[in-house]
Amino acid sequence: MLQSHLLSVLVWLPIVGGILVMLTGDSQPAMARWLSLALALLAFAVSLPLWGGFDQGTAAFQFVERAAWIPSLHSDYYLGVDGISMPLIVLTTFTTVLVVIAGWGSVEKRVSQYFAAFLMLEGVMIGVFAALDGLLYYAFWEAMLIPMFIIIGVWGGKRRVYATMKFFLYTFFGSIFMLVALIYLYLKAGTYDLGAFYAQRLTFNEQVLIFLAFFAAFAVKVPMFPVHTWLPDAHVEAPTGGSVILAAIMLKMGGYGFLRFSLPIAPDASHYLAWTMIALSLVAVIYIGLVALVQSDMKKLIAYSSIAHMGFVTLGSFIAWDILARTGTLHGVTLGLSGAMVQMISHGLISGALFLCVGVLYDRMHTRDIAAYGGVVNTMPVFGAFMVLFAMANAGLPATSGFVGEFMIIIASFHANPWYALLAAVTMITGAAYTLWLVKRVVFGAVANDEVAKLTDVNPREFLVLGILAVAVIAVGVYPRPLTDVMEPTLQHLAELLSASKL
Amino acid sequence: MQNLLLLIVLAPLAAAALAGLFGRLIGRAGAHTVTILGVAVAFAGSATVLYRMLYEGAPAFNEVIYTWLVSDGIRFEVGFLVDHLTALMMVVVTFVSLMVHVYTIGYMHDDDGYQRFFSYISLFTFAMLMLVMSNNFLQLFFGWEAVGLVSYLLIGFWYTRPTAIFANMKAFLVNRVGDFGFVLGIAAIVYYTGSLRYADAFAAAPEIAAQGFIPWAGASWNAMTVVCILLFIGAMGKSAQVPLHVWLPDSMEGPTPISALIHAATMVTAGIFMVARMSPLFELSPTARSFVLVIGATTALFMGFLGIIQNDIKRVVAYSTLSQLGYMTVALGVSAYSVAIFHLMTHAFFKALLFLAAGSVIIGMHHEQDMRKMGGLRRYMPITYWTSLIGSLALIGFPGFAGFYSKDSIIEAVHAALEGGKVSGAGYAYVCVVVGVFVTAFYSFRMIFMTFHGEERMDHHTKEHLHESPWVVTVPLVLLAIPSVVIGGWTMGPVLFGGYFGEAIRVLPANDVVAKLGEEWHGPLAFIVEGFTSPTLYIALAGVATAWYLYLKAPALPARIRAGAEPIYRLLENKYYFDWFNENVLAAGSRWFGNRFWTIGDQFVIDGALVNGSARTVGLLGALVRHLQSGLLYHYAFAMIIGLSALLAYILYRA
Lengths: 503, 655
Prior knowledge:
The structure holds 2 protein chains of 2 kinds.
Chain A: H1 6-23, H2 29-52, E1 62-70, E2 75-81, H3 85-106, H4 111-130, H5 134-155, H6 160-189, H7 194-199, H8 204-221, H9 230-237, H10 240-265, H11 267-293, H12 298-317, H13 320-327, H14 333-365, H15 376-379, H16 381-394, H17 401-416, H18 418-425, H19 427-442, H20 450-453, H21 460-478, H22 481-499
Antiparallel strand pairs in A: 1-2
Helix pairs in contact in A: 1-2, 1-4, 2-3, 2-4, 3-4, 3-10, 3-14, 3-21, 4-5, 4-10, 5-6, 6-8, 6-9, 8-10, 8-11, 9-12, 10-12, 10-14, 11-12, 11-19, 12-14, 12-17, 12-19, 13-17, 14-16, 14-17, 14-21, 14-22, 16-19, 16-21, 17-18, 17-21
Chain B: H1 2-21, H2 23-55, E1 61-71, E2 74-82, H3 84-107, H4 114-133, H5 137-155, H6 162-193, H7 198-203, H8 205-209, E3 212-213, E4 221-222, H9 223-238, H10 247-250, H11 256-265, H12 270-277, H13 279-282, H14 286-308, H15 313-333, H16 337-364, H17 382-396, H18 402-420, H19 426-452, H20 460-464, H21 471-497, H22 513-519, H23 524-533, H24 535-553, H25 557-564, H26 566-573, H27 578-628, H28 633-654
Antiparallel strand pairs in B: 1-2, 3-4
């Protein structure tokens, strides 16, 4: 029962659990916290068999569940995972546990609703990753906006209304076009089944329009230059937990969407527009890297750093045709796709950790201004060690997860065009520059002021969260093979799909 | 063998973890005990490996330890290649590291970060061993970055000092510029060979060299030249070659033991080691080797000049390190890889010695580093004095001392390359290395004279407390002084001419300048005798004599010379304006662009014009449309008439 409905349990357990948490009301915050933690842990535990029972030898969808949903629209309740979505689902359940622990003491207002929002968001996000029916996918996709909108709007900072509106309009604007594309595909294929979308032949013009419609939705989520400006605002205003989920999971929806929809459904358009995607990715790496350098707000800096790192994801996803053109083979395509996936997972861990680090400081000093800090390591040595570790991971140091994806994508992009590799590798300098400069100004130095002198080091709860992330970051950096082995057959298959013309 | 190698690598790592994570629990003595034990195990193991290879004929070890990941058929692995080149490096690294560990007990004994320091230097030993023992580019890069990380942590060890935390960031970023090239070089290797293993790259070397690399339409470069120059850019960062040398002098902000270990003896020589390791690749690109040669020669001479005007005792040694790294690079440039490694080894001993001796002086002087406040110390610190003298004699290449054999070999090798006439840049390099001999001798003995001889310029208080350093400091000095004398003569024959490196270093017969030197080799004693008749010695002695004259005989003269040569002095004082350029052009430029991109690109254009602009446009349209809905019937009627006429006109026109 559990085994055959694992994905349903993963989707609905947190959603129903979230409702239960909400029903406990605001008068019993302790109960809301413990119940949420139990539910988040349970969801994480349920997601482990997903990894354990995953067949690494096939590109086919696994743990498939299918039932009629809206028969009149030929839309099914159709769930399943492959090597692309499975690791992202585990990342989601893992991150939610950390967010619940991290929010334990730092949220005082409407505690039960706060945790309920995160649990429901978890279920909906898992639904996005698991849905194999276009309409179901779209329903989850839009549903995802609501909890995040509430999280930023209720527990956010001073300019939260502006930030939520910007966040909502941007993403909603994008997804409307996606809905049109999905409906068009339904009209052509007669079903919302993703497999039928893959097999559907499309003319070049159809593909370009579909690609652009998907692009509107996914590019905003990644976010890609020039539709990235909502992210720094949203991050700055979001509470710590919101920032973590936003950076760790929600941005991945964009990268996931490109791999799941754009590439296999519109391969010829992807081919035709690949140069744009690559150009925008490289702009993200360099332009955004320089913008990150001059930020004075810690969260903005990390937000811009996220955009630059996500540029690698889109770069790794769209170099296939250049590789084919230059070398005449697909050798290196899977390396790039795999690098994109690893980069997404790794970015989830590292940016999540960095936002949590900022949260630790913010809870104590109530400011994100870099200039307000200095010499934090004197009063918070353990925190300082964590911060340096995550900063190094963000700068892509080998033996941390941050290195793996970047290294794979730089190598793969050299196969496509050495200039891509050269421009992408600039991140080795800019990434180190903005991250280490941040560390220098915040962590190192003499105690800057009385506020810093009064800081107390991380408490056991914070230590636990940062420690778990540190272990994860190093584990992926030292031995990424378990992760890449899971994805390899699916990505090999994707490489074949996207190299086959649909005209 | 594999278990022994794993033990060698993991012992320092485990010790570092213990001292770092449980430092408070195991205390100071616990921290230095476990780390010294760890490094001692690594040293004993390395010595065993070398012994087995030399005397029991053990073959080279080349095995994969584990597969890091596999994608697209490309295997990313962690594995060891231990041949004679590696074994030599392992022994040098672990020996110097062990000496520095012991010395640190004395140097850092009243520092709050005692356990942290031991943890870092043990971690460094682990990282450096991973670097030299690698059999593939992934692990090489891992070790490469890991030593950089530890270097970053150690330069900024005293993290409350603004200069230290500036220096460590600078070191990391400048190294990153080098790594930028290095990673592209590795990517190019994978592109051409489909593998990260050295063995595959070496096997495919002729094919790579036969290919063209097309940077843009119409141009074609030799692929091997591109690969080698990219890799060498990495070496330029790590081994501090001009113009990526700027971080090394500043790295002296770190505690002295690490200046000896990391910024003199081991880490900075990683670039030299890497190029020697890649000899099968570099041999196939004369252009890349000439590039290497010119960069090395420039570093050797021009960084030496800067050593002349320093007053901080550590900075003198730092610039001398830069210059000596330049010498090693020159040797690489003329295909004398074995000579480069030979000099790397002798240099590791005598330069670690010089740094630790400088540290001993600094302890005696109560952390005063300015040589102008020293003088006459030889009476108070005899062991430090004699060991410094030995180190300096080795450094200037005085016949019989270790540096003599290696440095003279470099000069001879460049001379042979010049005579061979096939290496572009050899003439320039020859001038640089010969003039460099005078410069080296001058700044080395300027330091000896200013510190240990002449008038005692320190204040009364310091003078009263002056005494020789404790045994944990002096024993490592003596133990390093011994190889600084004997290691050169003892090993030169077998290492350079006895085929010690075997397959580890490959030189094309046409480029083999070392073989030419071998024709003249009649043993170390004959080499010494020859040394006394060679002009190089007299150039060095002239340098010593000049230093003696200017700093002991006529100490008023340097100030007058300085006044007479003001522009040159200013150029040297500003270190050829490299730092000025980096700070005011590169760093400031990046910030300028960052600011403009942010305020103009993101805020003004995207947010201002496009996002909020479209919101405004919608609002504006609404306002316009509202005017249309005036509620007056004749307006609507008029509009309808105009519309109808337009429609009619259109239909008529179409017909």
